[in-house]
Amino acid sequence: MTTALGVVLFLLLAVAAATLRLGFARRIRALERAAIAPDLRPVRGLPDALAPLAELTDEPLPEEAVAIRLHQTGEMRLSEDKPWQPFTAEQVISLTKPAFAWAARIRVAPGLSVVVLDAFDGTDGHLEARLAGILPVARADGTGVAEAEAQRYLAELAWAPGALARNGHIDWRATPSGVTAATLAGRHIAKVELRLTGDGLIDAAGSPARRRGTGPDAPAEPWGGVFDDWGEIGGLVMPARAEVFWDPPGARFAYFRGRVTRAVPLDAAGRPIGT
Q: Which CATH class is domain 2-266?
Protein backbone atom coordinates (compact mmCIF):
# COMPACT_ATOMS: atom_id res chain seq x y z
CA MET A 1 0.00 0.00 0.00
CA THR A 2 2.81 2.37 0.94
CA THR A 3 4.66 1.58 -2.28
CA ALA A 4 1.54 2.16 -4.36
CA LEU A 5 0.93 5.49 -2.63
CA GLY A 6 4.50 6.51 -3.30
CA VAL A 7 4.14 5.69 -6.98
CA VAL A 8 0.93 7.73 -7.19
CA LEU A 9 2.55 10.71 -5.50
CA PHE A 10 5.55 10.47 -7.81
CA LEU A 11 3.29 10.40 -10.86
CA LEU A 12 1.28 13.36 -9.60
CA LEU A 13 4.47 15.36 -9.02
CA ALA A 14 5.78 14.40 -12.46
CA VAL A 15 2.54 15.52 -14.11
CA ALA A 16 2.54 18.78 -12.15
CA ALA A 17 6.18 19.48 -13.12
CA ALA A 18 5.47 18.72 -16.78
CA THR A 19 2.42 21.00 -16.72
CA LEU A 20 4.42 23.87 -15.22
CA ARG A 21 7.24 23.40 -17.70
CA LEU A 22 4.81 23.27 -20.62
CA GLY A 23 3.01 26.39 -19.42
CA PHE A 24 6.29 28.30 -19.23
CA ALA A 25 7.29 27.12 -22.71
CA ARG A 26 3.92 28.31 -24.05
CA ARG A 27 4.46 31.71 -22.43
CA ILE A 28 7.82 31.99 -24.16
CA ARG A 29 6.31 31.04 -27.53
CA ALA A 30 3.49 33.57 -27.07
CA LEU A 31 5.96 36.40 -26.43
CA GLU A 32 8.01 35.29 -29.44
CA ARG A 33 4.87 35.51 -31.58
CA ALA A 34 4.16 38.97 -30.15
CA ALA A 35 7.66 40.06 -31.18
CA ILE A 36 7.30 38.62 -34.67
CA ALA A 37 3.92 40.22 -35.46
CA PRO A 38 4.79 43.16 -37.75
CA ASP A 39 3.78 46.74 -37.07
CA LEU A 40 4.90 48.68 -40.12
CA ARG A 41 5.48 52.41 -39.96
CA PRO A 42 7.72 54.63 -42.13
CA VAL A 43 11.16 55.36 -40.73
CA ARG A 44 11.65 59.09 -40.14
CA GLY A 45 14.52 61.20 -38.91
CA LEU A 46 17.29 58.60 -39.09
CA PRO A 47 20.54 60.53 -38.51
CA ASP A 48 22.93 60.76 -41.45
CA ALA A 49 25.59 59.03 -39.35
CA LEU A 50 23.46 55.86 -39.26
CA ALA A 51 22.37 55.85 -42.91
CA PRO A 52 25.33 53.78 -44.21
CA LEU A 53 24.87 51.17 -41.48
CA ALA A 54 21.12 51.02 -42.14
CA GLU A 55 21.81 50.28 -45.80
CA LEU A 56 24.61 47.81 -45.03
CA THR A 57 22.50 45.73 -42.62
CA ASP A 58 19.24 45.92 -44.57
CA GLU A 59 20.58 45.03 -48.00
CA PRO A 60 21.15 41.27 -47.31
CA LEU A 61 17.67 40.84 -45.77
CA PRO A 62 14.71 39.53 -47.79
CA GLU A 63 11.92 42.07 -48.11
CA GLU A 64 9.52 39.82 -46.18
CA ALA A 65 11.77 39.59 -43.09
CA VAL A 66 10.09 41.13 -40.02
CA ALA A 67 12.19 39.59 -37.23
CA ILE A 68 15.47 37.80 -36.53
CA ARG A 69 16.04 34.68 -34.44
CA LEU A 70 19.46 34.67 -32.78
CA HIS A 71 21.18 31.66 -31.23
CA GLN A 72 23.61 32.66 -28.50
CA THR A 73 26.14 31.17 -26.10
CA GLY A 74 28.03 32.87 -23.31
CA GLU A 75 28.26 33.34 -19.58
CA MET A 76 26.48 35.39 -16.92
CA ARG A 77 26.84 36.16 -13.23
CA LEU A 78 24.60 37.67 -10.56
CA SER A 79 27.23 39.67 -8.66
CA GLU A 80 30.97 40.32 -8.57
CA ASP A 81 31.53 37.63 -5.93
CA LYS A 82 29.58 35.02 -7.91
CA PRO A 83 31.15 32.77 -10.55
CA TRP A 84 30.44 33.11 -14.24
CA GLN A 85 27.85 30.54 -15.32
CA PRO A 86 27.48 29.28 -18.91
CA PHE A 87 24.26 29.79 -20.84
CA THR A 88 22.66 29.08 -24.18
CA ALA A 89 19.83 31.24 -25.49
CA GLU A 90 17.50 32.02 -28.36
CA GLN A 91 16.29 35.55 -28.96
CA VAL A 92 13.60 36.76 -31.35
CA ILE A 93 14.03 40.46 -32.18
CA SER A 94 11.51 42.47 -34.18
CA LEU A 95 12.69 44.56 -37.12
CA THR A 96 9.48 46.60 -37.39
CA LYS A 97 8.74 47.63 -33.78
CA PRO A 98 10.45 47.65 -30.36
CA ALA A 99 9.83 44.06 -29.23
CA PHE A 100 11.88 40.98 -28.39
CA ALA A 101 11.78 37.71 -26.46
CA TRP A 102 14.97 36.19 -25.01
CA ALA A 103 14.87 32.69 -23.50
CA ALA A 104 18.05 31.42 -21.89
CA ARG A 105 19.11 28.30 -20.05
CA ILE A 106 21.76 29.12 -17.44
CA ARG A 107 23.62 26.21 -15.84
CA VAL A 108 23.83 26.86 -12.09
CA ALA A 109 25.07 23.40 -11.03
CA PRO A 110 25.88 20.08 -12.68
CA GLY A 111 22.61 18.84 -14.18
CA LEU A 112 20.65 21.88 -12.98
CA SER A 113 19.68 25.01 -14.94
CA VAL A 114 17.59 28.13 -14.52
CA VAL A 115 15.43 29.06 -17.50
CA VAL A 116 15.13 32.84 -17.90
CA LEU A 117 12.63 34.76 -20.00
CA ASP A 118 13.31 38.44 -20.71
CA ALA A 119 10.96 40.21 -23.10
CA PHE A 120 9.25 43.38 -24.27
CA ASP A 121 6.01 43.03 -26.23
CA GLY A 122 5.80 46.64 -27.38
CA THR A 123 3.86 47.78 -24.31
CA ASP A 124 4.82 45.74 -21.27
CA GLY A 125 8.05 44.22 -20.02
CA HIS A 126 8.36 40.64 -18.86
CA LEU A 127 11.05 39.00 -16.73
CA GLU A 128 10.73 35.50 -15.29
CA ALA A 129 13.16 32.86 -14.04
CA ARG A 130 12.31 29.26 -13.18
CA LEU A 131 14.54 26.57 -11.75
CA ALA A 132 14.59 23.70 -14.26
CA GLY A 133 11.86 25.60 -16.09
CA ILE A 134 9.45 24.63 -13.29
CA LEU A 135 9.90 26.37 -9.93
CA PRO A 136 9.51 30.19 -10.00
CA VAL A 137 12.59 32.07 -8.83
CA ALA A 138 11.72 35.63 -9.92
CA ARG A 139 9.03 37.38 -11.93
CA ALA A 140 8.16 40.94 -12.91
CA ASP A 141 5.66 42.06 -15.54
CA GLY A 142 3.91 45.16 -16.81
CA THR A 143 4.71 48.80 -17.24
CA GLY A 144 7.00 48.78 -14.18
CA VAL A 145 9.70 46.96 -16.13
CA ALA A 146 8.66 48.16 -19.60
CA GLU A 147 11.15 51.01 -19.78
CA ALA A 148 14.11 48.80 -18.85
CA GLU A 149 13.13 46.14 -21.39
CA ALA A 150 12.59 48.73 -24.12
CA GLN A 151 16.05 50.10 -23.33
CA ARG A 152 17.45 46.63 -23.88
CA TYR A 153 15.79 46.47 -27.31
CA LEU A 154 17.23 49.83 -28.34
CA ALA A 155 20.69 48.98 -27.00
CA GLU A 156 20.69 45.75 -29.03
CA LEU A 157 19.82 47.33 -32.38
CA ALA A 158 23.24 46.16 -33.57
CA TRP A 159 21.86 42.62 -33.17
CA ALA A 160 18.71 43.47 -35.16
CA PRO A 161 20.10 43.96 -38.66
CA GLY A 162 17.58 45.76 -40.79
CA ALA A 163 15.76 47.44 -37.90
CA LEU A 164 17.45 50.77 -38.62
CA ALA A 165 15.79 50.77 -42.03
CA ARG A 166 12.47 49.11 -41.07
CA ASN A 167 11.50 50.17 -37.53
CA GLY A 168 9.51 53.39 -37.70
CA HIS A 169 8.68 53.41 -33.97
CA ILE A 170 12.05 54.91 -32.96
CA ASP A 171 12.73 58.61 -32.52
CA TRP A 172 16.28 59.62 -33.40
CA ARG A 173 18.56 62.48 -32.44
CA ALA A 174 22.19 63.05 -33.37
CA THR A 175 24.60 63.77 -30.49
CA PRO A 176 28.28 64.78 -30.39
CA SER A 177 29.31 61.19 -29.53
CA GLY A 178 26.77 59.23 -31.57
CA VAL A 179 22.98 59.07 -31.73
CA THR A 180 20.14 58.80 -29.22
CA ALA A 181 17.32 56.33 -29.86
CA ALA A 182 14.01 56.64 -28.01
CA THR A 183 10.67 54.85 -28.03
CA LEU A 184 7.46 54.67 -26.03
CA ALA A 185 7.46 52.03 -23.30
CA GLY A 186 4.18 51.89 -21.42
CA ARG A 187 3.86 55.23 -19.62
CA HIS A 188 7.54 56.07 -20.12
CA ILE A 189 9.95 57.08 -22.84
CA ALA A 190 12.88 54.69 -23.09
CA LYS A 191 16.16 56.14 -24.33
CA VAL A 192 19.66 54.90 -25.04
CA GLU A 193 22.70 56.39 -26.71
CA LEU A 194 24.48 54.49 -29.46
CA ARG A 195 28.19 55.13 -29.99
CA LEU A 196 29.61 54.76 -33.49
CA THR A 197 33.07 53.90 -34.73
CA GLY A 198 34.83 55.91 -37.40
CA ASP A 199 33.46 53.35 -39.88
CA GLY A 200 29.90 54.02 -38.75
CA LEU A 201 29.42 50.75 -36.85
CA ILE A 202 27.75 50.58 -33.43
CA ASP A 203 30.38 49.61 -30.88
CA ALA A 204 28.65 50.64 -27.63
CA ALA A 205 25.22 51.48 -26.25
CA GLY A 206 23.90 52.54 -22.89
CA SER A 207 21.89 54.80 -20.64
CA PRO A 208 22.76 56.93 -17.58
CA ALA A 209 19.72 55.46 -15.79
CA ARG A 210 18.24 51.97 -16.18
CA ARG A 211 16.22 50.15 -13.56
CA ARG A 212 18.35 47.58 -11.74
CA GLY A 213 16.17 44.92 -10.15
CA THR A 214 12.52 43.91 -10.21
CA GLY A 215 11.11 45.48 -7.03
CA PRO A 216 9.03 48.69 -7.02
CA ASP A 217 11.89 50.56 -5.35
CA ALA A 218 14.64 49.20 -7.59
CA PRO A 219 17.22 51.94 -8.22
CA ALA A 220 18.14 53.31 -11.63
CA GLU A 221 21.88 53.11 -12.40
CA PRO A 222 24.17 53.77 -15.35
CA TRP A 223 24.13 50.77 -17.68
CA GLY A 224 25.61 49.83 -21.01
CA GLY A 225 27.38 47.38 -23.24
CA VAL A 226 30.00 47.05 -25.94
CA PHE A 227 29.92 45.18 -29.26
CA ASP A 228 32.79 43.85 -31.31
CA ASP A 229 33.75 41.34 -34.00
CA TRP A 230 31.50 42.81 -36.69
CA GLY A 231 31.04 40.54 -39.69
CA GLU A 232 28.55 38.22 -41.36
CA ILE A 233 26.56 35.58 -39.51
CA GLY A 234 24.30 33.56 -41.77
CA GLY A 235 24.74 36.27 -44.40
CA LEU A 236 23.53 39.01 -42.03
CA VAL A 237 25.80 41.86 -40.94
CA MET A 238 26.15 42.25 -37.16
CA PRO A 239 28.65 42.06 -34.30
CA ALA A 240 29.30 38.53 -33.05
CA ARG A 241 30.12 39.45 -29.44
CA ALA A 242 28.81 41.70 -26.68
CA GLU A 243 29.53 42.44 -23.03
CA VAL A 244 26.92 44.15 -20.81
CA PHE A 245 27.54 45.89 -17.49
CA TRP A 246 26.21 48.13 -14.76
CA ASP A 247 28.39 51.20 -14.58
CA PRO A 248 27.99 53.23 -11.38
CA PRO A 249 30.96 55.55 -10.70
CA GLY A 250 34.08 53.53 -9.92
CA ALA A 251 32.23 50.22 -9.74
CA ARG A 252 31.68 48.77 -13.22
CA PHE A 253 30.18 45.29 -12.96
CA ALA A 254 30.08 43.17 -16.11
CA TYR A 255 27.39 40.51 -15.89
CA PHE A 256 26.84 39.27 -19.45
CA ARG A 257 29.27 38.05 -22.09
CA GLY A 258 27.62 36.59 -25.14
CA ARG A 259 28.28 35.48 -28.70
CA VAL A 260 25.84 35.05 -31.57
CA THR A 261 26.41 31.66 -33.20
CA ARG A 262 23.51 31.72 -35.67
CA ALA A 263 21.10 34.32 -37.08
CA VAL A 264 17.96 33.50 -39.06
CA PRO A 265 15.48 36.01 -40.58
CA LEU A 266 11.79 35.26 -39.99
CA ASP A 267 8.68 36.13 -41.97
CA ALA A 268 5.40 37.37 -40.48
CA ALA A 269 4.31 33.78 -39.75
CA GLY A 270 7.52 33.09 -37.83
CA ARG A 271 8.93 30.88 -40.59
CA PRO A 272 12.70 30.94 -41.25
CA ILE A 273 13.64 32.55 -44.55
CA GLY A 274 16.38 31.15 -46.73
CA THR A 275 17.34 28.22 -44.49
A: mainly beta
